[in-house]
Amino acid sequence: MTENSNKNAIVATVTSGKGGVGKTFFTVNLAASLAAKGRKVLVVDCDLGLANVDIMLGIHPRLTLRDILFGSAPAEDVILSTKAGFDLLPACSGVREMAQPLLEKIQTVKTLLQSLEGYDVMLLDTGAGIAETVLQFNLLAPRNIIVLNRELTSITDSYAMMKVMHQIFGRDTFSLVVNAVADEREGERIFHHVDGICRRFLGFGTDYLGLIFRDEAVPKSILRQEPLVLAGPGSKTAACFDRIADAVCRWGTPLPRVEPPPGPERCARGILH
Q: Confidence class of residue 98 from pLDDT cuts 50, 70 and 90?
């Protein structure tokens, strides 16, 4: 892995079609697993209106992404080192101006990410759904990880997100993670169901990044504000994250060049049709 260069950094968003499927839990534990493998990792909380990565880690940041976008704080003053071994660029919660930032502010985030040096992996934890802000943040990275579970609404909303991103922005590379499954067979069944629909109606297949087992220790680790992979490194769930981290390490995709995002009129028209 190249040192002190972002040109070879792996950059991916972690997103979901609907909320409540364990997206942020996945982001935190994947980042901790990557850090345990010696990777220099940055997590960027891009769920700007309802940020919660800091809460999941028990961190109380003095400065957030808001101070960069709407103030004059330099990134090095905002980025925090975490007990899980990775760095965090936190956002804030319950602030109206951050809930629907202007497109140029999102572009500022992209330019910021390209200016940061020394990271092997950048994970952008976005909001859920197909709101304009979520879609634009998903365009900041060449790879999109979609977390879903067995619920019908999660499956249908995940497909809807991929459909919108493909039809409007031409995206056709998505990596799926099936969360809270009873066994490997269930995870594979859900993946093949979604993948089959994408192949039939959208004309492309998806990548099966892996599964996360249903585990009673998950809510306990969240309450303790400690990543599960650190609290139970020998568990089956930790092994799932270890395998996914290995797969992510093999990606090695550079950040795309900065281009102006499409205007709101085009995006709105595409979503409605």
A: low
